[in-house]
Automatic annotation (TrEMBL):
PANTHER family with a match to the protein in the record: GLUCOKINASE, HTH-TYPE TRANSCRIPTIONAL REGULATOR HEXR-RELATED
Family matches, as PROSITE patterns: HTH_RPIR (PS51071), SIS (PS51464)
Domain HTH rpiR-type: 4-80
UniProt keyword list: DNA-binding, Transcription, Transcription regulation
Organism: Kineobactrum sediminis
InterPro entries in UniProt: Homeodomain-like_sf (IPR009057), HTH_RpiR (IPR000281), RpiR-like (IPR047640), RpiR-like_SIS (IPR035472), SIS_dom (IPR001347), SIS_dom_sf (IPR046348), WH-like_DNA-bd_sf (IPR036388)
Protein name: Transcriptional regulator
Gene Ontology biological-process entries: carbohydrate derivative metabolic process
Keyword DNA-binding part of the UniProt annotation: yes
Residue span, SIS domain: 124-263
Length: 283
């Protein structure tokens, strides 16, 4: 049975829309690729209606709220081939490019606030706090995130390794045990190599954590999933905002772990700062 898309619903007579709803609908249907970057306040202002009006329209369309509406709209228009590199156009000037990218990041971070579970962060932290070693795995665009995580986590006094090569990942995962933690980073959670490595780590009994989307193939091999949501179609281009969200999640996890470990981490950081003094110029 065919389910009408959001744009089809807004363009048809299937919904009973008030005059205020129609003003919002007109903007959405005329420029859907731009709307996915609008805050609820901006869309309401452009339509000349209140923010609750926009929220109610989102619910009329079967969404959980405005954030859910934007996520579904982004998926809908990207699958139709109308979304290209943050909605960039060849005629965009520099300031427009800056505005579009920053707006996309702002929207994705806001979406992250709605989708990130404090319970999942606490669960992942508990798994890491008494681990014998921590491994970060990422391929392609997720590789730099894994390396950044290594840079942050090594100062906690727990052996940390980041690996971005698939063959080395498989070898490392083959040697993991129940006291080791393995964190797999993939926005889509569909990359065959990273999913295969996670399966090996899981079979070895390692403490597997996924920075990925709930319900993805990768998530199926992880004990804990830190859900990642961004308004991007990675089948069309290399992700930008999703990588930033991964980095933010790493920061959140590192901060929570540092607080959990307490004085031990403070001692390590003081020692690092003291030993780095000699590498810096005075002044």
């Amino acid at each position: 049975m065919h389910r009408n898309t959001l744009l089809e619903q807004l363009s048809s007579n299937t919904l009973k829309l008030s005059k205020s709803d129609q003003k919002v609908a007109a903007i959405i249907t005329s420029e859907p690729a731009a709307v996915i970057h609008y805050s609820i306040a901006r869309l309401a202002a452009l339509a000349g209606v209140s923010e609750p009006t926009v929220s109610r329209l989102s619910h009329k369309l079967g969404c959980d709220g405005y954030t859910d509406f934007k996520l579904r709209l982004a998926q809908e228009i990207s699958s139709g081939g109308r979304l290209f590199v943050e909605n960039m156009d060849a005629t965009d000037n520099t300031q427009t490019i800056i505005n579009k990218i920053l707006s996309s990041i702002e929207t994705s971070v806001h979406s992250m606030q709605q989708s990130t579970s404090a319970a999942s962060i606490e669960s992942a932290t508990a798994m890491l706090a008494d681990s014998r070693s921590i491994y970060f795995f990422g391929i392609g665009a997720s590789g730099p995130v894994a390396l950044d995580a290594q840079h942050k986590f090594f100062r906690f006094g727990i052996p940390v390794v980041a690996q971005t090569d698939y063959i080395n990942q498989r070898m490392m995962c083959s040697m993991l045990g129940p006291e080791d933690a393995a964190i797999f980073i993939s926005y889509t959670g569909r990359t065959r190599e990273i999913v295969a490595s996670a399966a090996v780590a899981s079979e070895r009994g390692a403490r597997t954590i996924g920075l990925t989307q709930q319900g993805s193939p990768l998530a199926g091999h992880c004990r804990e999933v830190l859900n990642v949501v961004a308004l991007e179609d990675t089948d069309l281009y290399t992700p930008m905002t999703s990588r930033i969200i991964h980095l933010v999640l790493i920061d959140i996890l590192a901060t929570k772990l540092a607080i959990t470990l307490g004085e031990k981490v403070e001692t390590n950081i003081r020692a690092i700062k003291r030993n780095l003094q000699a590498t810096r110029h005075d002044g």
